[in-house]
């Protein structure tokens, strides 16, 4: 009787589940057909009567001045050079500027001039991907928010080829299965990584793992389960991609372990404007009265600017007073929003607390020529982000002729600050003491020895040029255009 009762409940439940699944498939298929119909209405033929191929890039913060934006504009310029019948579209949430101002900003900041006009699709719901909206379960909140923002983008413009260039993998299935697009992505940084899982597992306190969680075993176990669930979902949506391009060996290892799509994954180093920096003449240092240490990175929490300031304060403290040259730290970076501006104010307060305000300068959203000037005058290029996916700023510092001191992890460790033809190209450090000691060591070297390191570093950065990016990027995305 128990078995019969079970059957009487199970069979209708299975039947109902089957009907619901069929309804869902029919609904999704209906939405797909409606979107395809909408696509025909929205797109018109070009001058030659042929409909241009629409290639859309999903980049909600395309007017920010970071390395990800440099990749976006270089990728668009590369496709415009190669394919005649292509119209590039950018989905952006930068509604406070016009399309012309965005393009002008790309030229001013990155020295990138586009060949043809770009169509901008302005999105209204960008707030859905702002981290501040999700004080808890931030990864999940931002990812689901990106799916809603992606839906808005899809309704406004249905492309033939969709490329997520900002790391919003949850938009990929939307454009592939509902939009009927060929989809690709350029991954700068995995949304979740095996390193993040190990941080929670080992109960380490970091900017993305608060102390109240690390101090409570139950909270840590719950967060670990949440991370594993999220990693599973992230792997599922990422594997929808027809073409996966990653920016470094470090990112490649993580994406391969999470997405398991090795056959369509390739490494394309981000384009660094090395030639512009290589044009700076490399000479033996003339000034011995003042040394400048320059950092180039956006003011985001993971960039760990407080570590730079603390290490610099320690260096100043340990530097004996007397006839030694004076030191200054110049922090150069882009501010995307109010949170970034608040972060800069907090950094200024930290400088006051440590008594180094007079030696630290902040330069925010500066023009390219000023950036070049600061790098040309700098002795040390400083970088402190743990597990930086690549590190365009690191390459620029090396190309400009500074002695680089980067974090001993991620892209700088695996791809950039590596020996070139058996010669040293820079230095790596991990904590406050390491950084202070290594800066002191670099400054203690003779100008001749520093020049030798700078020359080696310069020779090593040619593999990160715009030209190399164009060649490898075109090879990687070619399957999307077939």
What does this entry look like structurally?
The chain is α/β, with parallel strands linked by helices. The chain is 50% helix and 13% strand. The chain is built from 18 helices and 13 strands. The strands form two sheets. A seven-stranded parallel sheet has the order 3-2-1-4-5-6-7, with helices on both faces. Helix 6 (194-201) packs antiparallel against helix 8 and helix 11 packs across helix 16. The longest helix has 41 residues, at 2-42. The model has no long low-confidence stretch (mean pLDDT 88).
Give a brief rundown of this model.
With 482 residues, the chain is an alpha/beta fold.
Strand order of the largest sheet: 3-2-1-4-5-6-7
Count of separate DSSP helical elements: 18
Shape: globular
Rounded radius of gyration (Å): 25 Å
């Amino acid at each position: 009787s128990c078995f019969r009762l079970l059957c009487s409940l199970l069979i209708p439940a299975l039947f109902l589940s089957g009907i619901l699944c069929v309804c869902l498939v029919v609904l999704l298929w209906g939405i797909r057909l409606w979107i395809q119909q909408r696509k025909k209405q929205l797109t018109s033929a070009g001058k030659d009567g042929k409909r241009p191929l629409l290639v859309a890039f999903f980049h909600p913060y395309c007017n920010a001045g970071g390395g990800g934006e440099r990749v976006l504009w270089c990728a668009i310029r590369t496709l415009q050079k190669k394919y005649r019948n292509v119209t590039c579209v950018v989905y952006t949430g930068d509604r406070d500027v016009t399309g012309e101002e965005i393009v002008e900003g790309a030229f001013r900041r990155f020295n990138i001039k586009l060949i043809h006009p770009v169509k901008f699709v302005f999105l209204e719901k960008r707030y859905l991907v702002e981290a501040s909206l999700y004080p808890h379960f931030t990864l999940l909140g931002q990812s689901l928010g990106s799916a809603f923002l992606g839906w808005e983008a899809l309704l406004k413009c249905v492309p033939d080829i969709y490329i997520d260039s900002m790391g919003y993998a949850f938009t990929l299935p939307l454009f592939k299965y509902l939009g009927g697009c060929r989809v690709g992505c350029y991954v700068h940084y995995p949304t979740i990584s095996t390193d993040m899982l190990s941080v929670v597992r080992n109960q380490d306190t970091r900017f993305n793992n608060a102390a109240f969680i690390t101090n409570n075993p139950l909270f840590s176990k719950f967060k670990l389960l949440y991370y594993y669930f999220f990693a599973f979902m992230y792997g599922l949506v990422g594997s929808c991609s027809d073409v996966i391009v990653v920016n470094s060996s470090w990112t490649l290892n993580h994406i391969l372990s999470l997405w398991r799509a090795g056959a369509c994954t390739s490494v394309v180093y981000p384009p660094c404007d090395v030639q512009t920096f290589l044009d700076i003449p490399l000479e033996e240092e003339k000034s011995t009265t003042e040394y400048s240490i320059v950092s180039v990175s956006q003011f985001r929490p993971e960039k760990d600017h407080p570590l730079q300031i603390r290490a610099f304060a320690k260096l100043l403290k340990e530097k004996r007073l007397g006839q030694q040259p004076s030191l200054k730290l110049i922090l150069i970076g882009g501010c995307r929003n109010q949170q970034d501006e608040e972060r800069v104010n907090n950094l200024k307060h930290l400088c006051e607390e440590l008594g180094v305000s007079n030696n630290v300068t902040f330069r925010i959203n500066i023009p390219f020529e000023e950036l070049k000037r600061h790098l040309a005058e700098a002795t040390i290029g400083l970088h402190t982000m743990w597990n930086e996916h690549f590190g365009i700023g690191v390459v620029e510092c090396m190309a400009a002729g500074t002695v680089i001191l980067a974090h001993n992890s991620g892209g700088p460790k695996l791809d950039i600050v590596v020996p070139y033809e058996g010669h040293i190209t820079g230095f790596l450090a991990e904590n406050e003491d390491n950084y202070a000691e290594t800066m002191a060591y670099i400054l203690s070297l003779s100008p001749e020895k520093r020049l030798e390191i700078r020359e080696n570093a310069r020779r090593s950065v040619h593999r990160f040029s715009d030209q190399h990016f164009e060649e490898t990027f075109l090879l990687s995305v070619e399957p999307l255009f077939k």
